[in-house]
Amino acid sequence: MAHIGSFVVPILLVVFAVLVWKASPDRQLNRRFTTFTLIAALWATGVAAAHAGTQITLSVPISFAAGSLIPVMFLAFIHAYPPLAGIRARRVLVVWIAFGLLWSLLSLTTNLIVFEPSQIGNTLSRKPGPLYSPFALFIVTTWAMAIGVFISKWRVARGRSRAELQYLAAGMIIPGIAGIITNVLMPWITGRSLYGAIGPYFALSFVLIIGHALIRHRITDLRLVLHSGLTLAIATIVSSIPCVVLLLFFGPRLFGHLSFAELAFALVTIGLVIIIVPPTRDIARRLLDRYVYRTRANYQRTVREASKMLTRVLDLKRLLPFISKTVVEATGVEGVVIYLQDEDGFRRAMAQRRNEASDFQ
Fold this sequence. Notes:
- By secondary structure, the protein is mostly helical.
- The chain has 2 domains: about 220 residues, Rhodopsin 7-helix transmembrane proteins (Rhopdopsin 7-helix transmembrane proteins, Up-down Bundle); about 55 residues, no CATH class.
- Helix content is about 70%, strand content about 10%.
- It is elongated.
């Protein structure tokens, strides 16, 4: 249960991948970025499950299978970034992707990479297979190739393109190197995954940095449109932070006795409740507004329309009916009375009922 927070990372990655794909599903850069992010989400899920002691014999091979594809898809994404590579480079990329798929298949179906994973305390360990060293070398080499391609594109980039590459470097290369150290090099050298659980959080840093660039700076010209759904998703994620914190502190006592299936059901239920609460609150507020106040005021629209009218109307005889009508329609009150001050004090200048059946005097 101490690793519940790590399971939030894959969810964020999947949400972000869907948003980027929906922005431009026909564009190669979007498709490769989405594929890369989904594979990273699968890897983060496997790592989190393995370090949480959940189905280790399954989660460890999944993490290795996805981990072998992450650097390959990173390389493919860098290749898709302008300027586009030549035909020879594309052929090399196809061959390298085939190697990545082969390593992924071997990780899932054989003991050639790792076998007999175990967990003693909080330390996850496994026995390396005969191909573990070539596998780790492939991961490091692929990341090095991707960095080399990035540097070559950086050297020819100018202006905005270079500024966009800065976010790409901060979001992918730095977390990538950190992830290789904690999840590839250190297990390769020591045989134990002492800091492997940190890996999903490097993926989270990738989401934050690249997400900021995509949303605020439109990196690589992705048309990521901020609409109400995205705003709701971000608000839901932020509002779920207190729940996640409470689960981290009280989860072991509340759910420690549950099986994996029961725990998964409980977490999914909690997630659904978090998602349902905001729209339920909004619906209840609208219903109560209509019941108590007879309407739900849209103050921004009211002020905007009233401001336009007030800048054009200077005649008091036209201005007073407009003000009273605006107040009645916006708030649903029984009526409006407007008083004006003159030399003799306040006088009643106008009164308007909401309708003929109103009790307003």
